[in-house]
């Protein structure tokens, strides 16, 4: 019983809940952010069926171990949100997009409309259909749908999120931070976090940092802003946004100059000793190769096994595999040499040493704002901790060349980085620099350093080629490759014979060759311009492109309404799938009401984005705990239905009959290769096989009985050094995670990037970039990391706009989903611009005062707050709290609409760039990957006039209520220890 003023805990959160006659408890997986924690959902029978009454963390889940955050516990308010869409909607004839005038229709009518329209497109010109998905975690299905449809125009959210992080590290070490790997804080002694906000890997990271600090670890945060994780760091090093790459180059300079590097690691496990051709010509800057046909053809970026090293022991060139790693061989890391045929060469590490020679701490200090002596001290601390506090673990392992290592070398320096590094137009090379920094310290997949999570590491370059064959876009024909992938050379670009883009977003073109996730932020702009062609139907899932998901909010809203000379919309048909009445829903021609995560089946599996742990693969599912609201249907079910009606080969029999009754059936029975499916637990006819096996008809039931999660613990001999661990490499190939069991040598030097540069220089015979893009490719596709200012700096008067501006997600919210949550709104109902007091006072703005924030692209009026936890040259705010009036069923005049604002109004999705085809702009994105340059904008601030309205600018006309929304929050009871509060 609850005792007033008692010190006795109300209940033990780790105790198993005790269901009563009135309550039941079901387990599933949270989706209030992308962390994907295990949760327990407490239910009570209501008038219309089971109702959610309480959500807590699941102590038996391996990811969060019972820990839950404000977002996770407030999922109940997402379930009963007034903004819930409950039925399909069709825009009323004659009404304008954006007016929000709809009429409800049935699902059968919805499918008739989509089947007829998409069927005609597929039978004539499949690329005129574009499917762009936002913050989803089912890309294995959505990508398959696009491929089966026959359209290359598919992208996921990564292009405007963190594709630089994924691509920059995967092209360097074979894995990346986030789902694919992370810091081993259990064994680290120094932890350096760079550019990471609170939303990434939230609960597991909090658990790990807490234990790390209690165990005496030292935590350094490098970030323009000290919030969230950074607030508890032992030291905060403020840095100017977009300059992290300069810091990493200076740290490399100091580590190499001080000889604080792991020579043995570099020689055996990286391409640092491999010889690079220095002579001018078509092989310039590529690795020299062994001409022996037994060792394979010249390297093409996917086959590294014919490269050469220089053996210092006898002064001759030898094959890098396996001679270069023999006990009797001493590969040179430095020097210049001449091969027997007269070719001048040097080890790639020598070129790295030369690259960083001028990157002194003084040089970096002028760019980053960090004192030069602090940079020297940081480098020394990293190097000495990694090398002088190294340790051996009694874990024997065998490397890919047969050498038995009796112990495993620990390197106790761990890093973590995310969007703060990625969301810049120089992010790819910045993240390459970080990956190289981690590598020279020997921390890759070592105890106490960075550790991979299955199914990573991948090959460098991963064996996933994006679709790139224009002639294969045929009526009623699936593509011969997935729309997204990892190009290894110009030959794999998605371009036409004349070099023009194949895709509507210009992904995998000469503009953004390595755009592994596509450019979702460009699809509307390009489609409206008809660049490179017009499309017919755009389907957007879970992306608020008319508001916070756009780099040009007002422009995109206008473009969605723009018509051609014949009075037809430039994008003829817009389909929006969402669970809530977002700002984008108002612009739809057809609205598909999605379910919440508590109402549907979901898979976080090895074919997509699992939740693996360091010691082995982990996948998880969501299983409905309550029935769908109204007529809502999971988007996955919609895709399965459409694929069946359109008779996609993967979804129907040769006779045209559907193969799958729905999404759960699809998950169980679809196999991209024999024995491999969406889920790896409880496979086989009787559910006794794991990782690989026949489909199990009761697989969902098995997951439901096991907390909706499957975890496989690999033997300790496979826990580390997985790039080169023979036992793991063989195991990963056998289980279908890899196509080959080759070792993954770290790419200190990237011959993949050099292949694009050679084409731009006109030194190769293959595909050539358009003349106007040659200099761009030549400049940015450097095989060694380097720092350059964000592209927007080149078209900005830095004196007129002296401040960097950026956004972060608050710890209590994730995208615009959560800033409409009734409980979370009590934490943040609006946002402020946070400015250092020195900067704000110099501009004449009082703490709490109204101000104008202006970029060359737009302006906003907002309230300002003083904060000494932001470096003086930066201003920042929380992301996605500001709302259009009436959106998300918030009351007219809500704080979110009148006091909240978006920094997006100050950002542009395009930059000036003249080209020979008559265009005058290019995407405001990383020139290598197409990552949106969200954090590159520069601004100035000034006080608002006293007589100006005390509300944010710009303001939108109030959105009308959408038919069929829930409309008012259901009453929700509060509970103490499972009892009802009277």
From TrEMBL:
<dbReference type="GO" id="GO:0043546">
    <property type="term" value="F:molybdopterin cofactor binding"/>
</dbReference>
<dbReference type="InterPro" id="IPR006657">
    <property type="entry name" value="MoPterin_dinucl-bd_dom"/>
</dbReference>
<keyword id="KW-0004">4Fe-4S</keyword>
<keyword id="KW-0560">Oxidoreductase</keyword>
<keyword id="KW-0408">Iron</keyword>
<dbReference type="GO" id="GO:0016491">
    <property type="term" value="F:oxidoreductase activity"/>
</dbReference>
<feature type="domain" description="4Fe-4S Mo/W bis-MGD-type">
    <location>
        <begin position="22"/>
        <end position="83"/>
    </location>
</feature>
<dbReference type="GO" id="GO:0046872">
    <property type="term" value="F:metal ion binding"/>
</dbReference>
<dbReference type="InterPro" id="IPR006656">
    <property type="entry name" value="Mopterin_OxRdtase"/>
</dbReference>
<feature type="region of interest" description="Disordered">
    <location>
        <begin position="1"/>
        <end position="21"/>
    </location>
</feature>
<protein>
    <submittedName>
        <fullName>Formate dehydrogenase</fullName>
    </submittedName>
</protein>
<dbReference type="GO" id="GO:0030313">
    <property type="term" value="C:cell envelope"/>
</dbReference>
<dbReference type="Pfam" id="PF04879">
    <property type="entry name" value="Molybdop_Fe4S4"/>
</dbReference>
<dbReference type="Pfam" id="PF00384">
    <property type="entry name" value="Molybdopterin"/>
</dbReference>
<keyword id="KW-0411">Iron-sulfur</keyword>
<dbReference type="InterPro" id="IPR009010">
    <property type="entry name" value="Asp_de-COase-like_dom_sf"/>
</dbReference>
<dbReference type="Pfam" id="PF01568">
    <property type="entry name" value="Molydop_binding"/>
</dbReference>
<dbReference type="InterPro" id="IPR006963">
    <property type="entry name" value="Mopterin_OxRdtase_4Fe-4S_dom"/>
</dbReference>
<dbReference type="GO" id="GO:0051539">
    <property type="term" value="F:4 iron, 4 sulfur cluster binding"/>
</dbReference>
<keyword id="KW-0479">Metal-binding</keyword>
<feature type="compositionally biased region" description="Basic and acidic residues">
    <location>
        <begin position="1"/>
        <end position="14"/>
    </location>
</feature>
<comment type="similarity">
    <text>Belongs to the prokaryotic molybdopterin-containing oxidoreductase family.</text>
</comment>
<feature type="region of interest" description="Disordered">
    <location>
        <begin position="945"/>
        <end position="964"/>
    </location>
</feature>
């Amino acid at each position: 019983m609850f005792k007033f003023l008692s010190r006795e805990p109300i209940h033990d959160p780790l105790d198993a809940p005790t269901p009563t006659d009135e309550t039941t408890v079901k387990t599933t997986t949270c989706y209030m952010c992308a962390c994907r924690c295990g949760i327990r959902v407490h239910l009570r029978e209501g008038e219309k069926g089971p109702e959610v009454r309480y959500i807590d963390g699941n102590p038996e889940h391996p990811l969060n171990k019972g820990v839950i955050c404000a977002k996770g516990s407030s999922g109940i308010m997402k379930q009963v949100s007034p903004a819930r869409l409950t039925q399909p909607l069709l825009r009323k004839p004659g009404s304008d997009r954006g007016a929000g005038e709809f009429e409800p229709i049935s699902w059968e009518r919805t499918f008739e409309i989509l089947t007829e329209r998409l069927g005609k497109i597929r039978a004539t010109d499949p690329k005129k259909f574009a499917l762009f998905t936002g913050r989803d975690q089912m890309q294995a299905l959505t990508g398959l749908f696009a491929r089966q449809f026959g359209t290359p125009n598919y992208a996921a959210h990564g292009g405007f999120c963190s594709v630089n992080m994924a691509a920059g590290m995967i092209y360097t070490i074979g894995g990346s931070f986030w789902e694919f790997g992370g810091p081993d804080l259990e064994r680290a002694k120094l932890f350096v976090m760079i550019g990471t906000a609170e939303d990434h890997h939230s609960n597991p990271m909090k658990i790990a940092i807490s234990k790390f600090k209690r165990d005496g670890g030292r935590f350094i945060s490098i970030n323009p802003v000290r919030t969230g994780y950074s607030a508890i760091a032992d030291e905060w090093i403020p840095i100017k946004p977009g300059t992290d790459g300069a810091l990493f180059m200076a740290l490399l300079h100091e580590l190499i100059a001080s000889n604080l590097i792991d020579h043995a690691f570099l020689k055996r496990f990286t391409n640092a000793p491999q010889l690079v051709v220095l002579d001018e010509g078509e092989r310039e800057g590529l690795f020299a190769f062994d001409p022996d046909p037994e060792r394979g053809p010249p390297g093409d970026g996917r086959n590294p096994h014919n490269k050469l090293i220089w053996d210092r022991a006898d002064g001759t060139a030898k094959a890098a595999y396996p001679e270069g790693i023999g006990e009797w061989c001493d590969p040179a890391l430095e020097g210049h040499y001449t091969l027997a045929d007269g070719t001048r060469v040097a080890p790639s590490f020598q070129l790295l040493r030369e690259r960083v020679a001028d990157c002194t701490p003084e040089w970096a200090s002028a760019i980053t704002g960090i004192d030069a002596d602090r940079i020297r001290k940081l480098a020394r601390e990293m190097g000495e901790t990694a090398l002088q506090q190294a340790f051996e673990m009694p874990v024997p392992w065998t490397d890919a060349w047969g050498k038995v290592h009796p112990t495993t070398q620990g390197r106790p320096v761990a890093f973590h980085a995310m969007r703060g590094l990625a969301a810049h137009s120089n992010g790819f090379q910045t993240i390459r620099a970080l990956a190289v920094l981690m590598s020279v310290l020997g921390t890759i997949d070592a105890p106490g350093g960075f550790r991979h999570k299955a199914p990573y590491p991948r090959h460098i370059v991963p064996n996933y080629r994006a679709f790139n064959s224009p002639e294969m876009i045929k009526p009623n024909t699936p593509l011969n490759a997935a729309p997204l992938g990892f190009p290894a050379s110009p030959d794999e670009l998605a371009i036409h014979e004349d070099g023009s883009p194949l895709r509507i977003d210009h992904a995998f073109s000469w503009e953004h060759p390595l755009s592994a996730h596509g450019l979702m932020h460009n699809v509307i702009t390009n489609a409206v311009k008809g660049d490179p062609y017009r499309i017919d139907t755009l389907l957007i899932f879970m992306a608020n492109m008319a508001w916070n998901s756009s780099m040009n909010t007002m422009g995109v809203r206008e473009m969605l309404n723009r018509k051609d000379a014949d009075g037809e919309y430039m994008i003829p048909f817009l389909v929006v799938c969402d669970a809530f009445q977002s700002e984008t829903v108002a612009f739809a021609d057809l609205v598909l009401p999605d379910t919440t995560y508590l109402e549907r089946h979901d898979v976080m599996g090895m074919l997509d984005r699992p939740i693996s742990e360091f010691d082995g693969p982990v996948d998880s599912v969501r299983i409905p705990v309550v029935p769908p609201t109204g007529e809502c249907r999971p988007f996955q079910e919609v895709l399965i239905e459409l694929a069946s009606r359109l008779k996609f080969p993967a979804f129907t029999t040769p006779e045209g009959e559907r193969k799958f009754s729905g999404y759960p059936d699809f998950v169980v029975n679809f196999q991209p290769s024999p024995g491999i499916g969406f889920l790896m637990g409880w496979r086989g006819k009787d559910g006794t096989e794991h990782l690989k096996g026949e489909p199990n008809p009761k697989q969902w039931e098995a997951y439901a009985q096991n907390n909706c999660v499957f975890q496989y613990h690999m033997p300790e001999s496979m826990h580390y050094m997985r790039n080169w661990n023979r036992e793991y490499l063989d195991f990963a190939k056998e289980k279908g995670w890899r196509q080959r069991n080759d070792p993954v040598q770290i790419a200190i030097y990237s011959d993949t990037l050099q292949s694009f540069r050679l084409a731009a220089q006109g030194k190769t015979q293959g595909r050539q970039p358009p003349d106007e893009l040659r200099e761009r490719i030549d400049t940015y596709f450097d095989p060694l990391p380097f720092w350059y200012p964000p592209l927007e700096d080149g078209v900005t008067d830095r004196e007129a706009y002296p401040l960097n501006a950026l956004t972060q997600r608050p710890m209590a919210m994730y995208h615009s989903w959560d800033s409409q949550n009734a409980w979370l709104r009590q934490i943040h109902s609006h946002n402020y611009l946070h400015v250092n007091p020195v900067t704000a006072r110099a501009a004449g703005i009082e703490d709490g005062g109204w101000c104008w924030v202006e970029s060359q692209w737009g302006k906003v009026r907002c309230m300002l707050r003083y904060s000494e936890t932001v470096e003086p040259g930066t201003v920042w705010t929380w992301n996605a709290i500001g709302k259009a009036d009436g959106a998300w069923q918030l009351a007219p005049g809500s704080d979110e609409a009148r006091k909240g604002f978006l920094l997006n109004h100050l950002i542009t999705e395009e930059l000036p760039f003249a080209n020979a085809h008559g265009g005058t702009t290019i995407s405001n994105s990383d020139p290598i990957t197409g990552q949106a340059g969200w954090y590159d904008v520069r601004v100035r601030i000034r006080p608002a006039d006293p007589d100006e309205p005390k509300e944010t600018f710009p303001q939108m006309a109030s959105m009308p209520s959408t038919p069929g929304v829930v409309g008012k929050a259901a009453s929700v009871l509060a509970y103490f220890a499972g009892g009802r509060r009277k």
